[in-house]
């Protein structure tokens, strides 16, 4: 028997109201919402601890838990992160670099 989501809901095995799938999407990556922003940003390829701290300092944002961000703060954070070469652009750049 193949178990589907509809079957689990109809048999009251799971309740969809208990599920929470909200994540913040920054730089094309879904960052965890249960961690502090400094650590969540490090899930983006090309952002480490020092760059995450610099981003927070540049936009004068407190290092709160990601899920507590307002929509305006999230937009500000996305704009700041977009100034850096990250994810796919970084991989493309590094692959074009000649080896020494």
Automatic annotation (TrEMBL):
GO terms for molecular function: RNA binding; structural constituent of ribosome. PROSITE patterns: RIBOSOMAL_S13_2. It comes from the Eukaryota. Gene3D superfamilies: 1.10.8.50. The keyword Ribosomal protein applies. GO terms for cellular component: mitochondrion; small ribosomal subunit. The keyword Transcription does not apply. Pfam families: Ribosomal_S13. Keywords: Ribonucleoprotein, Ribosomal protein. One of its GO terms (biological process) is translation. Belongs to the universal ribosomal protein uS13 family. This is 30S ribosomal protein S13. It comes from Arachis hypogaea (Peanut).
């Amino acid at each position: 028997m193949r178990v589907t989501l509809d079957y689990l809901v109809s048999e009251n095995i799971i309740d969809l109201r208990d599920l929470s799938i909200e994540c913040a999407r920054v730089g094309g990556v879904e960052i965890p919402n249960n961690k502090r922003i400094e650590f969540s940003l490090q899930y983006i390829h090309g952002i480490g601890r020092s760059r995450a701290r610099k981003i927070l300092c540049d936009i004068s944002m407190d290092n709160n838990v990601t899920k507590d961000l307002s929509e305006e703060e999230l937009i500000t954070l996305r704009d700041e992160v977009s100034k850096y070469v990250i994810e796919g652009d970084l991989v493309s750049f590094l692959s074009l670099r000649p080896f020494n």
